């Protein structure tokens, strides 16, 4: 595994920006924005053997959707997935995968993943905390909203990691855990664990 440079990542970030602009022009009954999160935001993108590298994005609704029922949430996620497919498939990507809590879009070459985008849909609750769209059953017939409690703690501790020594420690530990998991665990989850375990 090796880290990708900011320059190497820029083209993929720009492509997602274009994809989002397209989706945003097609969905006009909701207002939302996106943000890059996790390893890609922090210049920690690792190119994993046979797994490629990934970018994690959140699409966040300005207004709360907590009152929406399961069918409505499933339909919203479906609309986003179909529109992202419209944009990406003509550029050589696979159909977006509808996973438990994300839409995963992959670029394949010779049946090997080159890179991917993981997109989650988020909405604020009455306290202002973000909740993620997530299926509640394996058959993907029921969807709810799960509050992301650990994300606030992660952000606060991440801000406290300062100096070259601690940053180097984070990069080394993050790379080791990625190698241990070899793409079988989400990058953002690994980063949260590393940040949580660093002694300040």
Question: What is the topological layout?
Answer:
Blueprint (H helix, E strand, L loop, with lengths): L1 E2 L2 H21 L5 E6 H4 L4 E2 L5 E9 L8 H19 L8 E2 L4 E7 L2 E13 L5 E6 L7 E5 L1 H12 L3 H18 L5 H11 L3
Parallel strand pairs: 4-7
Antiparallel strand pairs: 1-3, 2-4, 5-6, 6-7, 7-8, 8-9
Helix pairs in contact: 1-3, 5-6
Task: Provide the descriptors you would attach to this structure in a database record.
two-stranded antiparallel ribbon; seven-stranded mixed β-sheet; Beta Polymerase, domain 2; 9 strands; alpha+beta; 200 residues
Model description:
This protein has a single domain, classed as Beta Polymerase, domain 2 (2-Layer Sandwich), CATH 3.30.460. About 40% of the residues lie in helices and about 25% in strands. It has six helices and nine strands. The chain has helices at about 5-25, 40, 70-90, 150-160, 165-180, 185-195, and strands spanning about 1-5, 30-35, 45, 55-60, 95-100, 105-110, 110-125, 130-135, 145. The strands form two sheets. Strands 2, 4, 5, 6, 7, 8 and 9 form a seven-stranded mixed beta sheet that branches. A two-stranded antiparallel sheet has the order 1-3. The protein is globular, with a radius of gyration of 17 Å. It starts with a strand and ends with a helix. The mean pLDDT is about 90.
């Amino acid at each position: 595994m090796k880290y990708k440079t900011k320059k190497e990542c820029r083209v993929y970030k720009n492509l997602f920006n274009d994809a989002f602009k397209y989706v945003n022009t097609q969905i006009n009954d909701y207002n939302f924005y996106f943000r890059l999160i996790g390893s890609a935001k922090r210049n920690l993108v690792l190119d994993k053997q046979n797994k490629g590298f990934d970018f994690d994005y959140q699409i966040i609704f300005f207004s709360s959707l907590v009152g929406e029922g399961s069918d409505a949430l499933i339909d919203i996620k479906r609309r986003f997935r179909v529109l992202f497919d419209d944009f990406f498939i003509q550029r050589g990507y696979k159909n977006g995968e509808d996973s438990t809590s994300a839409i995963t879009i992959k670029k394949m070459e010779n049946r090997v993943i080159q890179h991917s985008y993981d997109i989650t849909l988020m909405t604020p609750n009455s306290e202002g905390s973000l909740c993620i769209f997530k299926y509640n059953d394996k058959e993907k017939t029921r969807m709810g909203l799960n509050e992301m409690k650990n994300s606030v703690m992660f952000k606060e501790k991440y801000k406290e990691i300062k100096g070259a020594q601690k940053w180097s420690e984070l990069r080394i530990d993050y790379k080791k855990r990625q190698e241990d998991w070899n793409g079988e665990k989400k990058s953002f989850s690994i980063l949260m664990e590393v940040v949580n375990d660093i002694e300040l």
